[in-house]
Design brief:
It is a single chain. It is built from 14 helices and 2 strands. It is mostly helical. The protein has 2 domains: 41-127, Orthogonal Bundle (Cytochrome Bc1 Complex, Chain D, domain 2); 133-244, Orthogonal Bundle (Cytochrome Bc1 Complex, Chain D, domain 2). A two-stranded antiparallel sheet has the order 1-2. Helix 3 packs across helix 6 and helix 8 packs across helix 12 (205-216).
Length: 265
């Protein structure tokens, strides 16, 4: 998730002021900073953004299986399996592979994940306005423009019986994933098909918070409405992105059809 420009500018201002007018640091402040570093958990953080959309650590299957059984795998076997997931989540760095391997084989993975999700909730609560499902609904349907001009969610996804059919139906996404991982995943756009578009038009943390709140709300019966202004709000680039996504999924369907035909022959 990329920081917003205002927050970045504020951080730079604070950093410059500290460099030009250094202040004495107390022992308590040093201890607090050290504790923050210790609490940071790259493996758990990467699991939330790259893996939690399809896998649980244990329990019911999502799009992929639960991962509790990989605790007993040899490290190199698990690392290679994670590497193969790049086709779904995009590039994984060496640090990502190391962090995810260690995290998934940790006996404390479940508690570490809970801590990471709480950290994400705290970060959202500290820096953002309260999440509003009504705003999230308008963003999802394309009735409210994304700040950075991205494609509206309903161009590819359905929710409560309305929307597009190119991507997965998100009606039960909050139930399957949990609101915090869902918000983090939206903001990070960690799915390979969507990443090229949203890398150029990132969804802000505030927008992700509103969208997750909307997706977690009770589903109302679908009503007949005019088509949402998916492209008028997002600009011509979004129309090209939509066309590219449609072509991507169409090629995938043709490939699967060819495989089935070959097998039948």
């Amino acid at each position: 998730m990329k920081p917003r420009f205002g927050a970045w500018l504020l951080a730079m201002g604070i950093a410059v002021s500290r460099l030009t007018a250094p202040q004495p640091v107390s022992g308590a402040e040093v201890d607090s900073t050290a504790a923050e570093v210790v609490r940071e958990d790259p493996g758990a953080r990467r699991y939330v953004t790259a893996c939690s959309g399809c896998h649980r650590l244990e329990g019911a299957k999502l799009n992929g299986p639960a991962l509790s059984h990989v605790v007993t795998w040899p490290q190199e076997q698990l690392r290679a399996a994670i590497k193969r997931m790049e086709k779904n989540v995009g590039p994984l760095s060496e640090a990502d592979l190391t962090g995810l391997t260690e995290f998934l084989q940790s006996t404390e993975a479940k508690s570490r994940l809970a801590v990471q999700e709480e950290r994400i909730r705290a970060q959202f609560a500290k820096s953002l306005a309260p999440a509003d499902a009504r705003i999230g609904g308008r963003i999802f349907r394309g009735e409210q423009r994304l700040e950075n001009g991205g494609l509206a969610c309903a161009a590819c996804h359905r929710f409560g019986g309305t929307g597009g059919g190119l991507g997965p139906d998100l009606t039960d996404a909050a139930v399957r994933l949990g609101k915090t991982p869902l918000a983090s995943g939206i903001a990070g756009a960690g799915y390979k098909v969507m990443a090229p578009h949203y890398r150029l038009h990132p969804i802000t943390a505030q927008e992700a918070s509103h969208l997750a709140e909307f997706l977690a709300a009770p589903v109302s019966p679908p009503t007949r409405t005019s088509a949402p202004p998916l492209f008028a709000l997002a600009g011509g680039g979004a129309a090209l992105a939509f066309a590219g996504l449609a072509a991507y999924f169409a090629r995938g369907r043709r490939r699967r059809g060819s495989v089935r035909t070959g097998r039948e022959g």
